Amino acid sequence: MISQHVRMGDVGLLLSGATLFLNSLMLFGKADHKSVGVFNLFVGLLQVIIPFYLIIVSDQQHWTIFHLACVFLFGLTYLFVGITNLSGFSGNGLGWFSLWVSIIAIVYMGVYLIHFHDIVNALTWGMWAYLWCLFFLSMSLNKKINNYVGKVAFVQSWVTLTIPSLLSLMGAWNTDIMSHIWVYVQVISIVYFCICTVQEITAASKQRKQKNVSINPILKS
To answer: What are phi and psi of 144, to 5 degrees?
Structure first.
């Protein structure tokens, strides 16, 4: 029974990977926001129903519920994205919700690192916290970083969700070798995010300088 519940959770993570992948394409301007919104609603609903069921049939131990409750973070985020996209509402509320989720994700990262000594899951939660924080910056603070957020979301859809869930479904995830490999994969991903961040800051700085150059002649005249 426990293995069946684990596989159900893996399927949920796989669908989350598909949703984040589509959301990244939407941020790149490659996918229509309404069609992506429909998929967000579908997966979001599943990501609320599945953890409810798993919690009900679980052993009710606090750590079991702790592990299952985090699925709601994804489910509610996807539902919020779907409703926002389809209704045309402002993303401001979704951004503030993402900030709250980002804080909760940092708590999960700390628990996995300090209590469980699980570096892979700690790094995963750290990456998710960063992504949710970017959603906050983009939607609530109106930072023009959609392309950058799309890059981060695209990488994370594969590195933190799709590939790990597939490996888990095949029984190849929970091994020492895979844990060591995945730490390197995550570190490489984080380095890539840092490079993209530097590029984003450099591009923004050049744009500001160009604006100043174009404004100065007008002021002099």
So the answer is: -85, 75
List, for residues 97-109, the tens digit of each pLDDT value. 999 999 999 999 9
For residue 174, which phi and psi values (nearest 5 degrees)? -85, 65
Token code pair at residue 128: 């998710």
Look up residue 201 and give its two tokens: 């800051």
* Token pair of 141 as six digits: 């603070």
13-48 pLDDT, tens per residue?
999 999 999 999 999 999 999 999 999 999 999 999
- The beta strand positions in the chain, using DSSP E, are none
How many domains is the chain built from?
1
Place of tokens 């591009």: 203
Which alpha helices (H) appear in the chain, and where do they start and end? 2-27, 33-56, 62-69, 71-87, 92-114, 119-139, 146-156, 163-169, 176-220
Identify the CATH number of the domain in which residue 132 sits: 1.25.40.600
C-alpha to C-alpha distance for 37 and 12, rounded to whole angstroms = 17
Task: Report residue 28 as tokens.
Answer: 């790149």
Cα 193 from Cα 185, distance rounded (Å): 13
How many C-beta atoms surround the C-beta of residue 51 within 10 A?
24
Domain that holds residue 183: 2-220
For the whole prediction, is pTM greater than 0.85? yes
Q: How far apart are the C-alpha atoms of 138 and 135, rounded to whole Å? A: 5
CA dist 100 and 102 (Å) reads 5
Residue 83 has pLDDT above 60, yes or no: yes
* Residue 191, amino acid: V
The residue with tokens 């503030």 is: 96
